[in-house]
Amino acid sequence: MQPAEKITADPVRSRPSSGRLSGRRWDATDLSLVAVFAALIAALAILPGIPMGPLGVPITLQTLGVMLAGIVLGPARGTAAVLLYLVAGLIGLPVFSGFSGGFGVLAGPSAGYLVAFPLAALVAGLLAVVVLRRQRFRVPLLFLACLSASLVTIHPLGIAGLMVNAGLPLPEAVAVDAVYLPGDVLKNLLAAVIAVSVHRAFPRLLAGRAARD
Amino acid sequence: MRGFGSTMGLYEPGHGFLYRTPLPVKAAGSLACAGVVLAWRSPSVTGVALLLTLAVLMVGAHRSPARILRMLLPAAPVLVILALYQVWLQGWAAAFGVVGGIIACLLAARALTLTTPVQDILDGVVRLAGPFRVLGAQPERFALALSVMLRSIPYLAGLFVDVRDAAKARGLDRDPRVAVTPLVIGAVAYAHRTGEALAARGLGDHDDGSGDDDIDGVDIDGGDGDIDGGGAGSGDGSRVRT
């Protein structure tokens, strides 16, 4: 009897804390979702990229993992997963693409992108919660959520990192950053398609929570 | 992903005073190097930092210059492009200041990860999180999450290879949707299994320790019999009972 009543009581109680980052405490499944998604970002970053399109130009999938963490797990757990991934990389585990890990990357030209990742997951996750309240147009809306998250966080901070660490003037930094834009658009589209499949396979992952709000 | 275990962590056993230096000292040293290089960013400061890190690596960890150069290999493409760009844009001195500074920071960080076993670094980070306990941080759960993450990487890497092989067998390996979607779904399923395994062992669930003033003890999917007893969260307890 008690568990049943507890379930019915849940929606009422979870309402005030659902919007906060650390309001609801995580159980073991939340914790392992965070840890496994941190591992997923690492796996996508260190594995050789997938040849894409007719030319077969390989792209690395690190940012795909970051976006997926945000829109699959939601803002709080997604940000935590990205932060965990960053911590693991900064203490020297070889989980960053290119640079092999260690906090030396913070001095490298790509530091701005790394710093932006948790913010990107946060923004994408917040937008995804809104998108997943509705059933229709999920792929295009999630794509827009990812795209705006990366345009608001990853690219500005990446450009700032290029200016500070690599000593590039603003126009050059923007030009270097712009090279990543087409791949980014493709990865965001991919993230949206995958996330919709994942939410279909595990409806309670995030959509169940969003509906309860 | 065979062989990942050997690349996991960058520790290489050896001799020298760096191996005997306590971790906090090494961490402070390499952070100081990064701070100095970034704050001044002049060729002379960079030169000193570069010489210093090279000397420490050669004397403190008995590494030959060739092996030190090999440490920079993964970063080499980016560094070369950046160097060419800086020379063309701002001249030799500025290029040395920027690229040399990055190399000095990379080597300083590498000196730490080279001479400290991964487990020691993990312990150090968890200890570092200790003071944040007052803010509601839980270093033990942080450590647990880190170790679950490290265990999951080889599994996911293997799953990635399997999924790609399966896609290739169907001639779909150019379609990233087919290559990645099963990986992510597999990852979520794996996380659920791991979570259940952790819960079965009583790990990972929040313990009602300190700092529960801002938390109302909400249990997300009920049904797991983890009804918090005692008076922790009074409103919570009364609702369950009535």
From TrEMBL, chain A:
Q: According to Swiss-Prot or TrEMBL, what is its membrane topology?
A: Multi-pass membrane protein
Q: Organism source for this protein?
A: Arthrobacter pityocampae
Name this polypeptide is given: Biotin transporter
Annotated region Disordered: the residues are 1-23
**Where is it located?**
Cell membrane
Mostly located where?
Answer: membrane
Transmembrane segment boundaries: 31-50, 56-76, 83-107, 113-132, 139-165
The GO molecular function terms of this record are: biotin transmembrane transporter activity
Q: Which domain of life is it from?
A: Bacteria
Q: Which family does it belong to?
A: Belongs to the BioY family.
Q: Which UniProt keywords apply?
A: Cell membrane, Membrane, Transmembrane, Transmembrane helix, Transport
* Cellular component terms per the entry's GO annotation: plasma membrane
From TrEMBL, chain B:
User: Where exactly are the transmembrane stretches of this chain?
Assistant: 44-61, 68-88, 94-112
Record region (Disordered) = 201-242
Q: Which InterPro entries match?
A: ABC/ECF_trnsptr_transmembrane
Keywords from UniProt, A to Z, are: Membrane, Transmembrane, Transmembrane helix
For this UniProt entry, what is the primary localization, expressed as one broad class? membrane
- Membrane topology designation: Multi-pass membrane protein
- Protein's cellular compartments: Membrane
Please list the residue ranges that the record marks as compositionally biased, kind Acidic residues. 210-227
The cellular component terms of Gene Ontology attached to this UniProt record, alphabetical and capped at eight, are:
plasma membrane
Name of the protein in question: Energy-coupling factor transporter transmembrane protein EcfT
Q: Lineage, please?
A: Bacteria, Bacillati, Actinomycetota, Actinomycetes, Micrococcales
